[in-house]
């Protein structure tokens, strides 16, 4: 595993309010408890506010700094102002992460990555799996519809252990689906 290819990746996709973050929190906690290193890259369509505007780091950023790193004995964060630049690609963002056993990507549903869809029909939004052949499994709060395409797994969203078991199996059977290969369409 190299810095340019930090490991296996799976996008967790679905509409807002479907339960992606709750499921991810469970999966990350369980995998980390097993000793696996798990990265998460979360996409947001909104402005990201990580600090109050009166704090030194925010003031320096607003003064014109291109990047500001906040460091402590507990964590560090780098904030980069795009100032009109195009949003970095998924590949560029993934390259910033340290190597891991698995990187879970929340969002980026348009990217060519293997996907786990979190689908709640009650939200009134369309499913993604019907139009995206890269959706490998669907975690839903309803029973599987008839006529699923071969190979697509339907999981009970209300039984997160079932989703974890599927993910563990998926990780073992898909070691060739790396971040670099996925983002490059390989």
TrEMBL record:
<dbReference type="InterPro" id="IPR004435">
    <property type="entry name" value="MobB_dom"/>
</dbReference>
<protein>
    <submittedName>
        <fullName>Molybdopterin-guanine dinucleotide biosynthesis protein B</fullName>
    </submittedName>
</protein>
<feature type="domain" description="Molybdopterin-guanine dinucleotide biosynthesis protein B (MobB)">
    <location>
        <begin position="10"/>
        <end position="141"/>
    </location>
</feature>
<dbReference type="InterPro" id="IPR052539">
    <property type="entry name" value="MGD_biosynthesis_adapter"/>
</dbReference>
<dbReference type="InterPro" id="IPR027417">
    <property type="entry name" value="P-loop_NTPase"/>
</dbReference>
<dbReference type="Pfam" id="PF03205">
    <property type="entry name" value="MobB"/>
</dbReference>
């Amino acid at each position: 595993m190299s810095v340019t290819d930090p490991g296996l990746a799976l996008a967790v996709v679905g509409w807002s309010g479907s339960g992606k973050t709750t499921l991810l929190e469970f999966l990350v906690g369980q995998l980390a408890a097993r000793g696996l290193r798990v990265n998460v890259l979360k996409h947001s369509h909104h402005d990201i506010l990580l600090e109050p505007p009166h704090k030194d780091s925010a003031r320096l950023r607003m003064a014109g700094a291109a990047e500001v790193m906040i460091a402590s004995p507990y964590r560090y964060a780098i904030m980069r102002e795009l100032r009109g630049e195009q949003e970095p690609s998924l590949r560029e963002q993934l390259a910033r992460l340290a190597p891991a056993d698995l990187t879970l990507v929340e969002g980026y549903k348009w990217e060519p990555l293997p996907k786990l869809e979190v689908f709640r029909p009650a939200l009134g939004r369309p499913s993604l799996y019907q139009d995206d052949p890269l959706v490998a499994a669907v975690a839903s709060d309803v029973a599987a519809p008839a006529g699923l395409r071969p190979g697509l797994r339907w999981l009970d969203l209300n039984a997160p252990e079932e989703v974890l078991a599927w993910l563990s199996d998926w990780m073992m059977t898909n070691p060739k689906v790396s971040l670099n290969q996925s983002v490059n369409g390989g």
